[in-house]
Amino acid sequence: MVRYMKIVYFFLGLLFTITIFLSLFETTLHLFHSPINSNIVESKAHSLTWIYLIKQKYISLIDLDIFTINEKRHLLDIKRVFNKIYYIWERLLLLSTIISIYLYFKSKEKLTLVIKYTTILGVVLNIIFILISFNFLEVFTILHKIIFTHNSWIFKPNSILIEWFPLLYFIEFFTIIIILNFLILFIPFFTVKYQKQKKRKQ
Questions:
Q1: Residue 89 in contact with residue 24, Cβ under 8 Å?
Q2: Which tens digit of pLDDT belongs to each residue from 33-50?
Q3: Residue 15's CB: how many other CB atoms inside 10 A?
Q4: Phi/psi zone of residue 163: left (φ > 0), alpha (ψ -120 to 50 degrees), beta?
Q5: List of residues 6+ apart from 86 with CB closer than 8 A
Q6: From CA 129, how far away is CA 133, in angstroms rounded?
Q7: Average pLDDT in the 119-147 region?
Q8: Is 163 in contact with 41 (CB distance < 8 Å)?
Q9: Residue 13 in contact with residue 116, Cβ under 8 Å?
Q10: How far apart are the first and last CA of the chain?
């Protein structure tokens, strides 16, 4: 029974870890739209492109004639991926919230165990991301080949999308997520520590 409960706590911790990561991804996606200290060319088109990508509705790209057919196809592919991620995130967030509230009122001790697993898995996830960063370009290329199977992500060197989103943008994007994830992990760490101290006093 104890072993079974540990497995349950592990998967709940995994659920919370994925939810936190997707929450950070969505937050960063909505706030970080260009490399730090970069000068954006065609800033109006850049803003409209982000509205197209992250707003949960489709707008016409007719006015954005600066894009080639291949670039427009890639933007559509990206939007579809973002929509799927958003769909998954919404439901995981709702589920995680319901479970957290239930455990809080049902058994704070069980919630503490879940938080402990969440912290451990979060640290492991961050370590994996840090290791990936040492070979970021290769992983970046592999992911694009898997997600965009018809190679809509391959452009000419003078592509406006490459100018807007150089490799540096993606490195900074995931660096921000890693840093925020480490900061958020302090919350469950100190929560568990507080619960242990409270239990000792009792």
A1: no
A2: 999 988 888 888 888 889
A3: 18
A4: alpha
A5: 26, 56
A6: 6
A7: 90
A8: yes
A9: yes
A10: 27
